[in-house]
Amino acid sequence: MENKCECEIGEDSGCGCPTSAGRHHGCGHGNIGMQASDPVTMSQTMFQKAFFKALFDLKVEKLKKKIEEKWGSNLDQAAEAVVEASGKEWEALGSTAQAKQELYSKLANILTQKKKQ
């Protein structure tokens, strides 16, 4: 049996409809007129979507904890290295911008002066 997205956009199209065990639950995009006139169906769909989003978010949080336990100190060191290098790049950009502004001012001054005769 083919798993067809109930929203008629399609499971593979990135419509965001939740799936589980190969079953697509649909989001109602294709039948919005019918759902808008049926608040119970709309509410049910919204709760189903919220359930799967909450389940996904919970899984993300669980993984974050495990990743922090396993690689937290390495990630902290890597983040520190990135912040340090990015800070140096940012400071260099400031110096470059200042030099460009000075050149601009000098050129503007030279080009706006009257020719000496």
Tell me what you see in this structure:
The protein has one domain. The mean pLDDT is 80. Helices cover 68% and strands 3% of the residues. It is mainly alpha-helical. The chain has a two-stranded antiparallel ribbon. A hairpin with a 2-residue loop joins strand 1 and strand 2.
Task: Show the helix and strand layout.
Layout: E1 19-20, E2 23-24, H1 32-36, H2 39-112
Antiparallel strand pairs: 1-2
Produce a short descriptive summary.
This protein is mainly alpha-helical. The chain contains 2 helices and 2 strands; from the N terminus they run E-E-H-H. A hairpin with a 2-residue loop joins strand 1 (19-20) and strand 2.
